[in-house]
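### Sample
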Amino acid sequence: MHQQISILNLVEQPSALTKFGVWLMDQVMGIAKMNALYQQHNMHGLSKEAFSDKIVELLSLELEGIQDLQNKVPADGPVVIASNHPFGGIEGVILARAISEVRPDLKVLANKGLGIFSELSDYFIFTNPLSANDPKNAPSLRQCISHVREGNSLLIFPAGRVSHFDHQGKRIVEHDWNKIVGKLAGQANCAYLPVFVSGKNSDWFYRIEKVYFKLRMFLLGREILNKRGDKIRVSTGYPVASKYLAADNNDEKAELCRALSYAQDAAWRYEWPADKVIQLKPIAAPENKQQIAEEISQLPKEQHLVSFKSYDVYYAMQSQAPTIVNEIARLREIVFREHNEGSGEPIDTDEFDATYTHLFIVNRDNHDIIGAYRMGRTDLLQEKFGKKGLYLSKMFDFKSNFVNQREPSIELGRSFVVPEYQGSYHGLFLLWRGLGSFVCKFPQYRTFYGTVSISKLYDPRSVRLIEEVLIDHNATIDVTPYNSFEFDLHPELHQFCRSKNRKEELSALLQSIESDGKDIPILAKQYRKMGARFHALGIDKSFNHTPGLLLSVDFPNTPDKLLKLYAGEGWLTYRNYQAE
C-alpha cells in the first residue's frame, strides 16, 4: 500500500525522469500539500470510512442534506445514483461515504485520478472519462452493469468531467451525460436516484478554462484544498422506477436522468403563499334522503341519462333540485378539504350553482350521491349574462377565437367523486358516461373545456413542470390567465422540456419530486387520453389560490374506443351531427 498521496500512485514502474515529472506535477496541482496533511495526520492505512471522515474534518466542511440522502437511498435492490459534478472530486468522497452507510455494497464509477487516494480504492470502479478509446473503460463499464444486475448500488457522475461555466447562459452547467447512465438506470427492476450537489469551484478555475479547457485538470487538487470551511449542500430526489424512464434510447434516458438531477437543485425552490387563515366551519349535516328521492322522482324523464348496476346519472338545475344541489355542495366541500382546497364553509357553493347545470350520480338503493360535475352551457349563459356568466372568466381572459366564444361549448368544473369511490372505476366512468349521454341529447355541444385543479399538496416544482410540459405554447394566444403562476422554470429544465415533446417523461420528473409518489392528476390523465389540448395555467384566487390547468376536448374527435364507451349507442350519430 502506498504511503503517500501522489500521482505516482497511478504510474506502474516509473522511470527516474517520470518520477521527477510527477514530483513537479504534485507541486503544481496542490497534491504535495494534500500529502503533507496526509502525513501530518497519520492517515495512511485508515479505513475508507475513517479516511473520508478525516478529509471532511480537515477541510471543516459543513454538509447539508446528508440525512435526507440516506433516507431516500433504497435499502435493498438494484439502484443507480447519479449526481452532477461541480467540484471534480470531493463530492465523490462525500456521497460515497454517506451512501455506503445505507448500502455497504456501493461501488462508484470514478475518474482513475482518484486512485491517488489508495485508502479509498475499495469504493471505486475506475474509468478514464477523458479518453473514450481507453481499453480499460470497457471492462469497467461491464463491471458496473454486472454490479447493478446483481442487485447492488452504484454511484455515477455521468458528465465524466467537472462542471464548466456556460458563457452564453452565465451559469455553471454540466457537460452532456454519458449514455451509460441510461443503460444502467434502465435495467429491469432498477431504481434511479437523482442527486444534485450545490456549489462551484473558484473563479480562477473558470477563468483558466477560457484559456485552455484541459488546464483545469491541473487545478483540481488545489480546488479540493480551497473548499476549507465551505458549505456543501446535497439535494436528493425520490427514487424513480426504471419503468418511468420511458425514453426510446439510452442517450435520451441519459438526458432525462440529467434533468432529474437538475430538478433537485436547491436553488430552484418556491414556497406556496400561506393559506388564508380561515376557521374551518363544521361540515353541514347531510340532506334528507327522502327529500333527495322526491326531487329525483320529480325530474323530467329525459333528465335521466344513464343506469348502471345500482347507479343512476341525472342532470338538473338548482331550481329543480335545491336539496340535491345542497348535498352536492356539501360533498364537494368534504372532498376539496382533503386536497387543501376547501372554502372552509359548511358547504362549497357560489352564485354559479344557480345558473349551471348539475350532473350527478346517485345510488338507487340508498339515494347517496357519489359524484358530480357542474356544467356551464356557454351559449345560454353568455346570451343571458355575457362573459361574466362563465365561472372561468374570473380566471382567464378568453379571446374572441377561443372555442367558447366561437361555438356552443360546455364548461366543466367542480367535479368530485366521494372518497369511498375514488379508487373505483365506477365513479369517474359514470361521470363521463353521463356527459356522453348529455351531449347526445344536445349534440350542438362539441367541445368541453374546464380546468384541472392541481392541489397545493403538489410541490410547486411539479406544478411548474406540468404547466411547461402539457401546455400547447402555440395556443396560449387564445386565452391568458389573469393570475399566472410566477415561478420560473429552472433554465436547464426549460431547455430540456422545450427540446422535444416531454409528456412521456413527465411522470418520471414528478416521481422524483413528490414524497408520496403523486403522478399527473388523474383527471388530467383522463383528458389526455381523450386528446385534450392544454391552454394555460391560472391561479384561482377565489378557490384558495389553487392552480388550475385550462384545457379543452374536441369530444367528437375523441378516439373511437372512448367515444363509444362514453356516448354509448348514439356515439356515431353525435359524431356526424351537423349544425343547421
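The chain has 21 helices and 20 strands. This sample (L-ornithine N(alpha)-acyltransferase) is used throughout the tutorial notebook.
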